Amino acid sequence: MITIHNVHKAFGRHQVLKGIHLTVQKGEVVTILGPSGSGKTTLLRCINYLERPDEGQVEFGGKTIDYKHPSKKDILFLRRHTAMVFQQYNLFSHKNVLGNVTEGLTVARKIPKREAEEIAMAQLERVGLADKAGHYPNQLSGGQKQRVGIARALAINPDVILFDEPTAALDPELVGEVLEVLLEIAETGVTMIVVTHEMEFARRVSDHVIFMDQGIIVEEGSPHQIFHQSREERTKKFLHRVSPAYLYQQV
Amino acid sequence: MHIDYPFIWTAFKFLLAAVPLTLLMTILPILFGFIIALLVTYIRLYKIKVLAAAAGAYVSFFRSTPAILHVMLIYLGIPVLIIKFGHIFGIGFNANKIPVFIFVIAALSLTAGAYLSEAVRSGILAVDTGEAEAGYAIGLTHSQVIRRIVLPQALFYALPNFVNLFGGFFHTTSIASIVAVPEITGKAIIAASNNYEFLEAYIAAAIIYWGITILFEWLAHLTDQKLSQLKGGIT
């Protein structure tokens, strides 16, 4: 279980997060929806301290870490128990696929090379890319890169994986292969927090959906509650605006 | 004016003997300069307060003043310092015993260090910050991210710059002639004034510089091709 309390973050004078509380149970898939600029990605990046929150705590793995004054050890603890999948993949371009996946094992966790490679190959198998182990990122398609990104995250066996719009940069015909992998790992009980614009993914896979706007959580609940029985006007408006019916009404 | 063509050939053969020293005076400053550049880069990346300011001043000074002045300042300044400190600590060390080319190599190393620091810096700017973030996200420490993710790529991106600097420094060695180091230009001056055949001696020197530079540019072209193959794309 991971719980975050009262996370605040400002960029200059612009308040991006205005006190976020969030609890994610083990094995749960939580999706975060919201219009652009609502603070979803910033929230995700605050969790593993890629952004420095101005205030807040995280409770996690039997530890409470103060986001305002974390020690270096705290930050490493957070990052070594979480993993992140990025919108732009962010693969290490000077390392091959296998090297990308083993880096977190051999260097950050001091796992012997041979064992690390076994773990990495098993995860590459899982995302269907075992045959690309020797390739470099610039030899892969976007979908393949993102699947390597997912294998890299899975390999370190984290308590939670943070997904930052994992399909947003992909060509439409490549979204499917990444969603397929996401569905598979969601079913195997990996704890996931997913910022996404894939409404169908959120509807089908999430245990819990969060709708954010202007730095606060406006509404949260089961997919059914959010998609069919939302109480808040802002939620309804957002869901309407991303619906095909609205997008094509003027065509 | 009459040109003594056979003497060009004589001078050419005479000057070839200076090529090893000239190359040494190019390679050593680049090597020492590279070590200085790595130090400067580390200081900058770790934002060590006082040292970062000193490193900034060093790079600024040596890139904003001509290399010939660096040679003069080191050649004339270091002996003064040695004598002064030797006096304080009671060590009788004769600065005149240090071979002149050592001063030149020291001065050019400092010059090279400043230029290479900037080359590494632009290499670092070329590295995708997302990759550093991915490094942090899998639990690497700051120094692991620098050593394993940022620097290897930064040096790779800086390689064409290094190659260009190498070519530039090969020509810069000629300023050592003003303190009478017998590299190619220095030796050309000797050949010229001993035989009163100035133009011929300098033509011979120019041919040697040109030839070695062409050879070098060809090597640079090969590395460039190899690099763009690795990077992919048409750049």
UniProtKB/TrEMBL annotation, chain A:
InterPro entries from the UniProt entry: AAA+_ATPase (IPR003593), ABC_ATPase_HisP-typ (IPR030679), ABC_transporter-like_ATP-bd (IPR003439), ABC_transporter-like_CS (IPR017871), MetN_ABC_transporter-like (IPR050086), P-loop_NTPase (IPR027417)
PROSITE patterns (UniProt xref): ABC_TRANSPORTER_1 (PS00211), ABC_TRANSPORTER_2 (PS50893)
Nucleotide-binding as UniProt keyword: yes
Transmembrane segments annotated in the record for this chain: none
Location in or out of the cell: Cell membrane
MF GO annotations: ABC-type amino acid transporter activity; ATP binding; ATP hydrolysis activity
One Pfam family in the UniProt entry: ABC_tran
Primary subcellular site in the record, as a coarse category: membrane
Protein name in UniProt: Amino acid ABC transporter ATP-binding protein
Automatic annotation (TrEMBL), chain B:
TM annotation in the entry: 14-43, 50-78, 98-116, 154-181, 201-220
Database matches in InterPro entries: AA_ABC_transptr_permease_3TM, ArtM/GltK/GlnP/TcyL/YhdX-like, MetI-like, MetI-like_sf
GO biological process: amino acid transport
Domain ABC transmembrane type-1 stretches: 15-220
Gene Ontology terms for molecular function: transmembrane transporter activity
Protein keywords: Cell membrane, Membrane, Transmembrane, Transmembrane helix, Transport
GO CC annotation: ATP-binding cassette (ABC) transporter complex
Membrane topology, from the record: Multi-pass membrane protein
Entry-linked Pfam families: BPD_transp_1 (PF00528)
Subcellular location: Cell membrane
UniProt similarity note: Belongs to the binding-protein-dependent transport system permease family.
NCBIfam families to which the protein is assigned, alphabetical: HEQRo_perm_3TM
Name by which UniProt lists this protein: Amino acid ABC transporter permease
